[in-house]
Structures are given as structure tokens and as C-alpha cells.
Design brief:
The complex is a heterodimer. Chain A has one domain (11-205). Chain A is mainly α. In chain A, 63% of the residues lie in helices and 10% in strands. Chain A has six helices and three strands, in the order H-H-H-E-E-E-H-H-H. In chain A, helix 5 (126-156) runs antiparallel to helix 6. Chain A has helices spanning 11-24, 32-43, 51-60, 99-117, 126-156, 162-205, and strands at residues 64-68, 74-81, 84-90. By secondary structure, chain B is mostly helical. Chain B has two domains: 4-66, 434 Repressor (Amino-terminal Domain); 72-130, no CATH class. In chain B, 66% of the residues lie in helices and 5% in strands. Chain B contains eight helices and one strand, in the order ααααααβαα. In chain B, helix 4 (46-56) packs across helix 5. The longest helix of chain B has 22 residues, at 71-92. The radius of gyration of chain B is 22 Å and the shape is elongated. The two termini of chain B are 24 Å apart. Classes of the chains: A mainly alpha, B mainly alpha. The interface between A and B is medium-sized, with 34 and 23 residues.
Chain lengths: 206, 131
């Protein structure tokens, strides 16, 4: 039987972490918003804009992603052993609300393993690592949403009719506020929504 | 597995007690005790087992378990201990990395079991059976 040594990580992730360490080494650790910006720039924004594109990124990195019914206590899970890397995401009825966020959270935790192996952990306590991964996921989502909104605003600016143009601006502004609010408030909403979902699943099982 | 009646009889004989003596010590009629020992009557209520345990100077849990009252609780406790030990193994394996997105601050037993099962899948080891 082959002896398994330390986990091997996908080279693009290692390259990203090396770049982040050299860019943000002083002071270390950087804010998660900076890491999120660097992450989006490194892997290019369009790749991360939808869950499907996030899945493709994971596939290209050799990270298997599956959506499964996880225990009530878990929203997501990741593990690395040898050259195997896997992420599991909770697959409740309402999971689509949080799956992008959870996938980004798990990816951030995999980045943390690399930082740790390089001697640059960003947090030592498990709860602190979780908090950083949560912040990272929210920052990436906000950046993606902001960029998407910027693109739509630019398109709206080319509408010929003045009233239609301002109508579109108003609609987009409302959409922007609602989108940013939902991304920011996701963890608070999620508890209630997914708890209800878990109760439904239990009722179905019994 | 030994049924409750013969178990109780063996216990009494080991302690060199007569049915009359147990009746005096535990306040349980010797006729009733005899029927239990012969399997004619079902294992008694836990309250009576408590009194018998005192008379036989045995831990009450042992009598409760023999009577079948602790079967589920005992099984669950053993299973929990197995999971906790296996989980301890997972978190101390330097070659294995895992992380979670949690609801709440701590991992419950179901979550730990899931993590152990994922470890078993990834490493090909059967640590729940080994522990």
C-alpha cells in the first residue's frame, strides 16, 4: 500500500496562495475583502458568477463537489487527503439560496490549509477560521454582484429614451439594494429558512 | 445472552442468600422472586430492581441492563463513545484536512459521525470498527 504523505493541493490554488503571501505578507493576515478581491482577479470574475461556473472552477482544480443531505448541524464540509479533495454542500429543498456561499466558504478553508502548510495561517482557532471563511464568501459574492450590477448600469446608460433610462436606473438601484441586503443578511436568514427546511425533511422521513 | 431469571438466581446464589433473606432485605415477596427467577414472571419494575440491587450489593445499572431497561441507552452510549474516539482520531491525523460550514458553534454527534465517515471514505480505513 502506498504511504500517503501530506495532502497535495491544486497548483492554481497554491500559486494563488503564494501570490497572496508575497503581496499581503506585511501585515499578515490580510483582511478577507483583500483576499476576496485577489481571488476574483486570479480566477477571473465570470468564472465565479454562478454556481455552475463555481462548479466548473472546482472541477478544473480537481475538487469534487457533491450536494448531499448533511446532518442538521452542517451546511458544508470539505476534506483533503493525499491527492483527493472533496466538498459536500447541504442539499435541502431551499439549499439553492446558500450553495454559492457555502461553496466559496469551503474553498476558502482549502486555501487556509495551504496557507497553514506555508507557515502563514490566517487564524488558528477553528471558530476564527470559520468566521474568516464566512467573511470571504460574502466579500466574493458582493464583489461579483457589484461587478454584475455595474455592467447592467452601463448597458442601461445607453438606453435612448431619458425616462426609460432613469426608470431602468431606479429599478437597478432597487435591485442593487435588495441584492446587497440579501448577501449581507444571508447568515441571519439562513438559520430560519434552513431550519424550516430541515424540519420538513425530518417530517418526510418519519 | 442469559435471560433475566437465571441471571437473578445466579446472583442470589453467588451472594449466598436465600429467597427469604432477600425478601427481608428488599421487601419483595419470596414467592414473587421465585417466579421471576424461574422466568414465570417478567423482570420487575426498576423501583424493585433498585431494592434488589441494594440487597445484592450490586450496581443498579447492572440489574437494569440485565432486565433490558438500559439496552437502548447503553447501546447509544457505546456508539457515542465510538464516534467520539473515531473523531478524535480524525482531528489528530496530520495527513488529513477537513473543514466545515457549521450552524452554531459546536459539532454535534451526527456531524462528527459524518466527518468520520468521510474520513473512512477518503482514507479507506475503518476507524469506527477499529475503535
Amino acid at each position: 500500500m502506498n504511504e500517503v504523505s501530506q495532502p497535495e493541493y491544486p497548483q492554481p490554488l497554491v500559486t494563488f496562495c503564494q501570490g497572496a503571501v508575497s503581496k499581503f505578507a506585511s501585515p499578515w493576515p490580510p483582511e478577507e475583502s483583500k483576499l476576496a478581491d485577489a481571488f476574483i482577479a486570479h480566477f477571473s470574475l465570470p468564472k465565479l458568477a454562478t454556481f455552475e461556473s463555481q462548479l466548473k472552477l472546482c472541477e478544473s482544480l480537481g475538487i469534487g463537489v457533491s450536494e448531499v443531505i448533511l446532518p442538521d448541524n452542517l451546511r458544508g464540509h470539505n476534506c483533503c487527503y493525499g491527492n483527493q479533495r472533496e466538498i459536500q454542500i447541504h442539499n435541502g429543498k431551499l439549499h439553492f439560496i446558500t450553495r454559492e456561499h457555502t461553496l466559496l466558504h469551503e474553498l476558502r478553508e482549502i486555501l487556509e490549509y495551504i496557507f497553514r502548510d506555508m507557515g502563514y495561517p490566517t487564524a488558528n482557532e477553528r471558530s476564527a477560521r470559520e468566521d474568516r471563511a464566512e467573511t470571504f464568501a460574502s466579500c466574493v459574492e458582493k464583489d461579483i454582484f457589484g461587478d454584475m450590477l455595474k455592467g447592467v448600469f452601463q448597458a442601461a446608460a445607453e438606453i435612448g429614451s431619458k425616462w426609460k433610462r432613469w426608470g431602468a436606473f431606479l429599478l437597478l438601484a432597487l435591485l442593487g439594494i435588495a441584492g446587497l441586503f440579501s448577501i449581507t443578511m444571508l447568515p441571519a436568514f439562513e438559520e430560519q429558512i434552513l431550519d424550516a427546511d430541515s424540519r420538513n425533511l425530518r417530517n418526510v422521513r418519519t | 445472552m442469559e435471560t433475566f431469571g437465571p441471571y437473578l438466581k445466579r446472583l442470589r446464589r453467588t451472594k449466598r442468600l436465600s429467597l427469604k433473606q432477600v425478601e427481608g432485605a428488599a421487601g419483595v415477596s419470596n414467592a414473587y422472586l421465585s417466579q421471576i427467577e424461574r422466568g414465570i414472571r417478567k423482570p420487575p419494575h426498576p423501583d424493585i430492581l433498585q431494592r434488589l440491587a441494594k440487597a445484592y450489593e450490586e450496581p443498579v445499572e447492572e440489574l437494569l441492563e440485565a432486565a433490558g431497561y438500559l439496552k437502548d441507552a447503553q447501546g447509544r452510549r457505546i456508539q457515542s463513545q465510538k464516534i467520539e474516539r473515531a473523531f478524535e482520531h480524525v482531528i489528530t491525523d496530520p495527513k488529513y484536512r477537513y473543514g466545515t460550514r457549521l450552524k452554531g458553534a459546536t459539532l454535534n454527534l451526527h456531524a462528527k459521525r459524518f466527518i468520520v465517515e468521510m474520513y473512512e471514505k477518503m482514507t479507506g480505513r475503518k476507524i469506527l470498527e477499529e475503535t
